[in-house]
Amino acid sequence: MRLAYVLPGPLSLGHPGGKQELQRREEILQAWAAPGTTVVVREVAAGPPSIESAYEEYLSLAQTAGLLQTLQGEGFDAAIIGCFGDPCLDALYEVTEGLVVVGPGDASFHLAAMLGESFGVVTVDDGIVGPIRRQVAGSGLAARLAHVAVVQTPVLEMSGDLDELVERTCAGAREVVARGADTVVLGCMSMAFLDLGPRIEAAVGIPVVNPVQAALMTAEGRGRFGLRHSKRAYPLPRKVAAGASLPDLYVRS
After folding, report:
1. Helix, strand, coil percentages, rounded to 5, for the chain
2. Are 6 and 42 in contact (CB under 8 A)?
């Protein structure tokens, strides 16, 4: 199976690790992947280096949609959207057909719902709380969400003091537990690639869902069994179906 991890923004232009961070993430994904799966990391050429608001999600759409169509043409089996917020996932479903497309947030929420009665999310800052609540509602699991806590650490600063980040994440996990959660979801891919889950789980004593792992196992499973999104639910845009390219849909006066 050929699987792509698609960064919906040029992370390497904003992350302290630059291109090396992309290589690091690719190595982690490959180590976690099942035998027979080849994983590559691709990033779009332009857009917000990190997505920490609804506005930045929408800014990422055009470039991400174009990259997914390219991957589909190259014969990839599956793609993971490399942002916990699943930016514009419904639109990305519309413009793809033969490609399994997975949003890590959606995959994590459903996995968390299988592990307990209610779950909480620990994410980066206050600007993400509203979008995550709407995201969970869109997944049909609003009644299972206990609370969303924040660590007040921007995405591009996640590679700083790891021990301090663990302390903040543990505090967030305890906060969601106090609000009724019995499972914790890490609500940021940069946090997930630091593999904080085992340390958080040891500290709070409940399951911790890593969205990288949740998305990877979902993409591999769906790819193996050919379970692609329904084109009845997410039809190809009418103009594209009639022969237009995605750039043709955007005109200027």
Report:
1. 50, 15, 35
2. yes
CATH architecture of 2-103+214-249: 3-Layer(aba) Sandwich (3.40)
Joined together, the tokens standing for residue 193 give: 């690639």
Section 179-194 average pLDDT: 95
- Give the whole-angstrom CA distance, residue 145 versus residue 113: 9
Residue 18 is predicted with a pLDDT of 81
Distance of CA 9 to the CA centre of its chain: 12
More confident residue, 155 or 50: 50
Q: What is the mean pLDDT of the chain?
A: 93
Confidence at residue 160, expressed as pLDDT on a 0 to 100 scale: 64
Q: Which of 212, 214, 213, 194 is nearest to 24 (CA)?
A: 194
- CATH number of the 105-211 domain: 3.40.50.1860
64 Cβ contact partners less than 8 Å away, ≥ 6 residues apart: 6, 8, 44, 47, 81, 87, 88, 92
Instruction: Tell me how long the chain is.
Output: 253
Q: How many CA atoms lie within 13 Å of 168's alpha carbon, on the beta-carbon side?
A: 19
Q: State the Rg of the chain over Cα.
A: 18
- Domain range list for the chain: 2-103+214-249, 105-211
Does 105-211 match 2-103+214-249 at the fold level? yes
pLDDT, tens digit (0-9, with 9 covering 90-100), for 70-88 = 999 999 999 999 999 999 9
